Input
Amino acid sequence: MTGLQTIIGIHDTTLGPAVGGLRFYEYVDERAALKDVLRLSRGMTYKAAIAGLDVGGGKAVIIKKKGVELTEALLRKYGSFVERLAGHYVTAADYNTNVDHMVHIAKSTRHVISLPTELGGSGDPSGNTAYGVYISMKAAAKKTWGTDSLTGKKIGIEGVGKVGYFLTQLLSQEKAALYITDLCPDRLREVSRNYKVEVVLPGSLHSLPLDIYAPCALGASLNAETIPSLNCAIVVGAANNQLAHQERDGALLLKQGVVYVPDFLVNAGGLINAVTELEEGPFNKNLVRQRTDKLYNICLHVLDEAAKTARSTQEIAQGLAVERIQSMKNALLR
Ligand code: NAD
Output
């Protein structure tokens, strides 16, 4: 008995097999885990659809019990559960899981991606997620200032973990003026040692006078309290579920004239990286880059549509994702 308690959510497979990461998390109860997996799998459907990928949305959780670690036995058992779904769900790394965990899962299923690069996999996606954030920032800059150069722009990065670190690197190369914050002093020390940045106190970055604010920590950083104190032209960041309340906060940002590019579009570089592992042959980094570069025009399209219709970018982007899925569904029915 491994005591594995897991839920796999398959939200939509119209465009292809449902793909999504595996979370290992201590939930209050099973209901909370179910709610999380359903919400996250729906988000994956939108992300894949808007990024033009031929996969659907899924997500999985292994419910963490107090004091229990993610062992090889647990991961192999989880893998055999994934295998039973016969490829309708493909699992990947997510919160509290990594490429090494995927190696154990691969011992009992073929339907696993984000394996280590040494084994021919796509590895950690954070570098490409950051690249997608950078490309999305450029698109938002083009729409806002008529040029996509970020040189000299004041950019605040909230959370300099894996994605935030790579983003700092890309923006430093372009000579942006960088402000960073993090709850972890070690992260701040490491980034400051390697790049020219100004460190600010956690909780204060969003209200600084900035050109671009980049939430790259946890979700819900854009809410009824923080949005009125934003002092930036653009919000583009990697964090999932940045809007505490999707409709209300999307509308608040619109009302305030802040250009917001929806998170599920901005951070699609991670999924693009992982999904490219499903292609035949050796892992193709060039294809990852080409697919991620397409985010630029998709962002511009969302921003143009939002400007034309005076609807929030969140609403527009979700609408485009649903439209793509629906058009495939209609074609399948014909
Ligand atoms: P990470 O855990 O490596 O980094 C997050 C950082 O944020 C940590 O250094 C943490 O100390 C810091 N942090 C947490 N709360 C904070 C706060 N209130 N203020 C300031 N800093 C805070 O995570 P990551 O992989 O870099 O991912 C960042 C975000 O992007 C997450 O929301 C993640 O879900 C999302 N995301 C990541 C990827 C990826 O490829 N890693 C892909 C898609 C989306």
